[in-house]
Amino acid sequence: MLARRLGFAILVSLGLTSASLVVAAVSPTAQWEILKRWVFPGEGGWDYLTLDARGERLFVTRGDRVEVVNTETGKLIGSIAGIKGVHGVALAPDLHRGFTSNGKGDSITVFDLDTLATIKEVAIPGHNPDAIVYEPVGKHLFTFNGKSKDVTVLNATTFALVATLPVADKPEFAVNDGVGHIYFNIESEAGKISVLDTRTLKIKDTWSLPGCASPSGLSLDQSRRRLFSVCDDKIMVVTNADTGAQVAKVPIGDGADAVAYDATRRLVLSSNGDGTLTIVQQVTADQYKVLETLKTQQGARTMAHDSVKGRTYLVTADLGSAPAATAENAHPRPVPIKDTFTVLVVGKR
What we know:
Helix content: under 10%
Number of domains: 2
Largest sheet: 7 strands, antiparallel
Distance between the termini: 31 Å
Order of helices and strands: EEEEEEEEEEEEEEEEEEEEEEEEEEEEE
CATH class of the largest domain: Mainly Beta
Strand content: over 45%
Number of helices: 0
Number of strands: 29
CATH architecture of the largest domain: 7 Propeller
Strand order of the largest sheet: 4-5-6-7-8-9-10
Mean pLDDT: 91
Low-confidence stretches: 2-28
CATH superfamily of the largest domain: YVTN repeat-like/Quinoprotein amine dehydrogenase
Shape: globular
């Protein structure tokens, strides 16, 4: 997730059924805009964003900490510190707990969801945990581990190891459908998506994603059973969540790293590192058209979306030069400039 590259804007297009792709013009009247910009002090990068159930608190991962922002005031209301390379946050309101995936620590941090106080750090056998999902029916916690190419399953109350599930390649973002399945992208050159059965705790299927290299962000339309994966080659692919069939391709911006589905407005939003937000209308389950490509800010590649309020939260910073490439990091990203970290709030007035 942290290694997604930045790019440049593209022309907007129209994606149709049977995975076809047709270029179309966009309406000259902009509908969406940046409503607010909140700038925070400090330094460091960022990764996944997570909203609480009521959309009141935004959890922002910042490398060695998680910063919690009030979504009404834009004020920093708390921090969870001392984390080694945090990637994601999973919330468990029924347990009054939250969990972070610590990529550099091969661990999770457990915190009190009300006070944000750290409860404990728990080591896991997987290496470089990235995406993290809490499943409330079985009360299981899943970490998707990039370096070891597997999924760790923990008991979310005792933190006992329940299972380790090898996967086809490096797992990326994951979504829970609430009815017994977690879907997650496989970040390989020939993209794939896997289906994890949360009742049997086994990998049920792995499907190919034609035309989708290195899929990263993933979202789900639960009622129409459609999955949205954003890919390296400025494409979003739409997959039938029951059969694995690809039903559409839609052009998006470059460097996409997150995608969100708005069930209220039937929109799909792709946040792109080139400094754009692609806003796509779901016409039918298998037909999509780009409504608008909104200019945001370079590097704003991850997001969280509130379907109730119709607000999208993006994060980025002013970017300096990239460091020299090394054996461990062949494609270094530009360095965020201190005291410029910014949350962008996007919506309609």
